[in-house]
Automatic annotation (TrEMBL):
SUPFAM superfamilies referenced in this protein's UniProt entry, alphabetically: ATPase domain of HSP90 chaperone/DNA topoisomerase II/histidine kinase, PYP-like sensor domain (PAS domain)
Protein source organism: Oxalicibacterium faecigallinarum
Molecular functions (GO terms): phosphorelay sensor kinase activity; protein dimerization activity
This protein's record includes keyword Signal: no
InterPro entries: HATPase_C_sf, HATPase_dom, His_kinase_dom, PAS, PAS-assoc_C, PAS-like_dom_sf, PAS_4, Sensor_HK_TwoCompSys
Domain spans labelled Histidine kinase: 457-648
Entry GO CC: membrane
Transmembrane parts of this sequence: 9-31, 51-68, 80-99, 119-140, 152-174, 186-205, 257-278
Protein's name in the database: PAS domain S-box protein
Domain PAC per the UniProt entry, residue ranges: 364-420
C-alpha cells in the first residue's frame, strides 16, 4: 500500500520520533495512575511531568511527518502542512511555558497545558528547548543565500545545551536551575532532547553538515571516527583524573593542568594518526590520479591517431566526445559538435533521424549493435560501418553509448565493382553455355538427320537393290539343273542374302527406328525392350502410359535415345537379370525411369559418373530444359531418372509438319 501512494521513510528520525512518543505517552499515563515495574515506580525511569510529555508527543508527530517522503505532490504538501501545524503548536507551548515561568504571565494555561500546578510546570530550559526544536522542524528546509541551513545549527545547539544538564547530573554539579524552587532538568528529559536533536539532523541527510557527516569521501569517515573518539577520550581522561584525586595521588587543584596535559597529548597522537591517514589517502589518490592520467593519455593518443571515428553520447543523444577523425568526417570543430544532438550535426535530416533512431535502439535494448549506413557529409556521401555499445557506470546504470565508425566507402565501391564484374561474367558464361547448348543441339540434329538420311538410303537404295537381286536370283535358281552341287550352292546364296537383308534392317533400325516415326514413342520403347531381351537375355519390362502421347519429335527421339543408351550400359556393366523401363506423363513433366537389379554404382563414383553415354543423355535433357540423375535404387541396382518439362516447345503442334530436322 505504501508503494501505491509513493511512500518512503527515513528510519533514523522515525525511530527517534517513536522513542519520544513512547516517553511522552508514558509520562502522561503515569501522571494519572502510578505504575510499577519490578517493585520500581515508572516515575523513577521517566521522571517527567505530563505537560512535558504532551509536548514530546506533539514534537514526535512533527518529526515523523517531516521524515516522510511522498512522490505525490498533494500528499507531500499535506504532510508538510500538518507537520508545520504541529511544529507551531510545540513552539507555542514552549513559549507559553517560558512566559509563565520567567514573567509570571498566564495565557490560556487551562486550554494549552495539562495542569496549572507548579509541580506540573515545564522548566524554563525544557521550554526553551521546545521552542528551539519547534523552530528547527518548522524551518527545516530553509536555506540561506550562502547555502547554509539554520535548522542544522539550531539542532546542534539544542543537543549541546541539553547535554549540559545530563553531564551536570553525571558529575553532581549545579545545572541550569535558577532558583531553589526550580529543580534541574531530569536526565530522561535531557536524553529525550538529545535524541530529538539527532532525529532532526537525520531527517535531512543531504543538508550541508549532514552530507559532510554521511560523505564517503575521506572527510566523512575521518569526521565519524575522530569526533566520537575525541569525546569519549575526554570523558575517560576526566574520570581517570577524578579517580586519581579520590585515591590521593595528587591534589584537586592539579586536576585541570593534568587534564589539559593528558588531553593535549592524546589528542596530538590522534591528530597525528589522522594526518597520517590523510597523507596515505592523498598518496593513494595521487597514484590513482597519475595512473588515470597515463590511461587518459594513452586513450587520447589512440583516439587521436586512429583513422576510425570514435564518439560518445549521453542518454539524450548529445555528443559529449568526438575524436579528430569524427570531427573531420563531420567537417566541424569540437565547439560545433560537443553538446549537440544529431539533428544539429548532420546536414541531411533523414540521416539525422536514422542516427537518432539507432542510438535510441542501443540505449533501450542495452545491447551492442552493428550498423552499415550511407550518410551525407559536407565532402560527399560516405558508407560507414558503425558499432555502437551501451555505456554503463560502475553501478550498471545507463549513461549513454560509445560508438566507433569505419569508413568503408572505397571497399564498398570495390565490392560493387567486383559484383558488377561477376554479374558480367555470369552473363557471359550463361551466354556461352546457351551457345554451346545450341551448338550441341545443332550437332545432334545434324547427326540425326545424317542417320535418317543413311537409313533412308539403306531402305530405298540398298533395300530395293537387295529385293531386285533376290528376284533375279530366284529366276536364275529356277533355271539351274537340279543337281546336288547346285542345290547346295543355291542354299548358301539364299542364306547369305537373308543375312545381308537382316543386317541392313538392323543397321537401318539402329540409325533411325521406323516404328518411332510411324507408331510413336510408346511402340518404339516397347519394341526396343523386346529387342533388348532377345540379344541380351535380360528380362525387360516396359511400363507405359495408357493415354496417347503427343510430344514434339525432338522429345520422342531424345526419350528413345535415352532408353537405348541406358539399356546398352546395363547390358555391358550392370550384371543385372531384370530391367524396368517406366515412362510417366504428369500434368507438368515427362518422367523416364530405367531401373535394374544389378550391382549398382559404388558410392565414391556417384559424384563422378560422367561417361560419354550419360553425358549425352544429360546434354539432350538440358537442351530440352530438363535434367538426368544417376544413383543407386533403394532395392539395389542402378536408377537412371530423366525429367523433361512439358513446355510448348516440347509438345506436338498438330498444325506443324513432322520435320526430322527438329529431332535430336
Amino acid at each position: 500500500m505504501f508503494r501505491l501512494i509513493g511512500y518512503r521513510v527515513l528510519y533514523a528520525p522515525v525511530l527517534a520520533a517513536c522513542f519520544l512518543a513512547v516517553v511522552g505517552l508514558t509520562s502522561i499515563i503515569n501522571a494519572q495512575q502510578q505504575y510499577w515495574i519490578l517493585d520500581y515506580p515508572v516515575s523513577d525511569f521517566v521522571p517527567m511531568n505530563p505537560n512535558t510529555g504532551l509536548i514530546f508527543v506533539l514534537v514526535s508527530v512533527a518529526l515523523c511527518l517531516r521524515s516522510m517522503r511522498f512522490s505525490s505532490r498533494l500528499l507531500k504538501t499535506s504532510a508538510a502542512m500538518v507537520g508545520s501545524i504541529f511544529s507551531v503548536a510545540v513552539i507555542a507551548a514552549g513559549a507559553l511555558a517560558l512566559m509563565r515561568e520567567l514573567f509570571n504571565v498566564q495565557i490560556g494555561d487551562d486550554y494549552v497545558l495539562a495542569s496549572a500546578q507548579a509541580s506540573a510546570n515545564i522548566l524554563p530550559l525544557a521550554a526553551a528547548g521546545f521552542v528551539l526544536a519547534g523552530s528547527c522542524l518548522l524551518f527545516i528546509d530553509y536555506r540561506t543565500p550562502a547555502e547554509h541551513y539554520p535548522a542544522e545549527y539550531c539542532a546542534i545547539v539544542l543537543g549541546g545545551v541539553m547535554g549540559v544538564p545530563l553531564i551536570g547530573h553525571f558529575y553532581h554539579v549545579i545545572s541550569f536551575g535558577t532558583a531553589a524552587a526550580n529543580p534541574d532538568v531530569a536526565p530522561a528529559t535531557s536524553i529525550a532532547f538529545v535524541i530529538l536533536a539527532l532525529g532532526i539532523l537525520a531527517a535531512r541527510p543531504t543538508h550541508r553538515l549532514m552530507s559532510l557527516w554521511n560523505s564517503k569521501s575521506p572527510a566523512g569517515p575521518l569526521l565519524r571516527r575522530l569526533l566520537p573518539n575525541s569525546l569519549l577520550l575526554l570523558v575517560v581522561l576526566d574520570l581517570a583524573v577524578k579517580w586519581g584525586v579520590e585515591r590521593g595521588f595528587y591534589q584537586a587543584d592539579k586536576t585541570s593542568p593534568l587534564l589539559i596535559l593528558l588531553a593535549s597529548s592524546v589528542l596530538f597522537i590522534m591528530f597525528c594518526r589522522t594526518a597520517s591517514l590523510l597523507n596515505r589517502e592523498y598518496e593513494v589518490r595521487q597514484q590513482g590520479e597519475i595512473a588515470l592520467a597515463e590511461s587518459n593519455a594513452l586513450l587520447r593518443a589512440v583516439s587521436d591517431n586512429t583513422p576510425d571515428a570514435i564518439f560518445v553520447k549521453d542518454t539524450d543523444g548529445r555528443m559529449i566526445f568526438a575524436n579528430p577523425a569524427k570531427l573531420r568526417l563531420l567537417g566541424k570543430s569540437s565547439d560545433e559538435v560537443l553538446g549537440f544532438r544529431s539533428q544539429d550535426i548532420y546536414i541531411n535530416s533523414d540521416d539525422a533521424e536514422r542516427v537518432a533512431r539507432e542510438d535510441r535502439s542501443v540505449i533501450e535494448t542495452e545491447q551492442a549493435q552493428v550498423f552499415e549506413t550511407t550518410t551525407h557529409f559536407p565532402f560527399g556521401v560516405r558508407t560507414l560501418h558503425s558499432t555502437k555499445a551501451p555505456w554503463l557506470n560502475a553501478k550498471g546504470q545507463m549513461m549513454g553509448l560509445v560508438g566507433i565508425s569505419t569508413d568503408i566507402t572505397d571497399r564498398k565501391r570495390m565490392e560493387d565493382a567486383l559484383k558488377a564484374h561477376e554479374t558480367q561474367l555470369e552473363a557471359l558464361v550463361a551466354s556461352r553455355t546457351a551457345e554451346v547448348n545450341e551448338l550441341i543441339g545443332h550437332l545432334e540434329t545434324t547427326r540425326e538427320e545424317e542417320k535418317k538420311a543413311i537409313a533412308r538410303e539403306l531402305h530405298d537404295d540398298l533395300g530395293s537393290a537387295l529385293t531386285a537381286l533376290n528376284m533375279h536370283l530366284s529366276l536364275a535358281f529356277q533355271q539351274m539343273p537340279d543337281e546336288p552341287k547346285f542345290t547346295e550352292r543355291i542354299a548358301k546364296i539364299r542364306t547369305l542374302l537373308a543375312s545381308i537383308t537382316t543386317a541392313t534392317r538392323r543397321i537401318q533400325n539402329g540409325l533411325r527406328p521406323d516404328k518411332l516415326d510411324v507408331f510413336g514413342i510408346k511402340v518404339a520403347i516397347a519394341e526396343q525392350a523386346l529387342e533388348f531381351e532377345k540379344y541380351s537375355g535380360i528380362s525387360c519390362n516396359a511400363s507405359l502410359p495408357d493415354d496417347a502421347l503427343s510430344y514434339a519429335p525432338r522429345v520422342d527421339i531424345a526419350l528413345f535415345r535415352m532408353v537405348q543408351e541406358s539399356l546398352n550400359n546395363i547390358a555391358k556393366h550392370a550384371q543385372a537379370t531384370h530391367v524396368d523401363v517406366i515412362l510417366d506423363d504428369t500434368d507438368d513433366e515427362i518422367i523416364l525411369n530405367i531401373r535394374d537389379n544389378g550391382i549398382g554404382i559404388a558410392p565414391e563414383r556417384l559424384k563422378d559418373v560422367m561417361t560419354h553415354g550419360l553425358r549425352g543423355m544429360r546434354e539432350r535433357a538440358t537442351y530440352l530444359g530438363g535434367s538426368v540423375t544417376v544413383g543407386n535404387a533403394p532395392s539395389g541396382g542402378t536408377l537412371i531418372s530423366a525429367t523433361i518439362p512439358k513446355i510448348p516447345a516440347n509438345m506436338r503442334n498438330d498444325a506443324e509438319p513432322d520435320l526430322t530436322g527438329d529431332l535430336i
